[in-house]
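Recall that a protein's primary structure is simply its ordered list of amino acids. Everything else, from secondary elements to tertiary packing, is in principle encoded there. The following example makes that idea concrete.
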Amino acid sequence: MTRLLGWILRYGIAALFVVAAVFPLAWMAVAGFKAKTEVVATPFQFFPEVWRWDNYTQLLADESFLRSLGVTFAGAVLFAALSLTVNALGAYAFARLDFAFKRILWVVVITTMFIPGIAIMLTSFVVVTQLGMLDTLAVLVIPGAASGMQVFFLRQYYLGVPVALEEAAQLDGAGPWRIFTRIFVPLSKGAFVVVGATSFLAFWNAYVWPVLTITDPELFQVQQYLATFRSDRASEMGLLMAGSTLAALPVIVLFLIFQRQIIAGVRITGLK
């Protein structure tokens, strides 16, 4: 009887967490099928009286919306790839290599984890302005690629790689670059999935930085597009919910594809 109660309690709590996490997404998707005023109508009604596909078909036929999705996806992929490259190299250097001022530089890297991004937003904007990077995809991809958090995350993983593997490779004449590409990179697939997915998600959900640096409609990010859409057609809440649902789909699909690797990477890295 005690085991049965424990089982019911455990799965009951898990079910509550699942409902709390899924309900907002489900409501947003269903609200995309509602009429303009039905989304905010009172009393609250989860399902629409009449299911309308017009909101979704209208957005899928909107070239500006599809372009913003494509530009954001391309930028997110580039950002994730650049983040993986830069932060993995930095993590390997701090985990395995000896160089001058290593301790001091590591303190500097760790310190950046505690500085809010909004605190350096203005100075960052001045820098990219002077470099002539405004209204380019580079201004969205390059500035945030280096991350103290991701360097710390990957360094913790690399510290758990057996030193014997490096010593064996050094006996065969392998240098640091070959050791990194032939040993550390193949062993880092789980950690790389975590870093790549995190970077992709951060880029996809970015709003403040694109608003500051991008004014060309051809380069509008999806969150930026949805914000302008809301200001232009504030009364069309059903259309906004449909756009938000379509914008969330790539991130949800990404998690469903890599969920095992993400969970395994976090668990393994946490044990190192």
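The chain has one domain: 59-271. The two ends are 39 Å apart (CA to CA).
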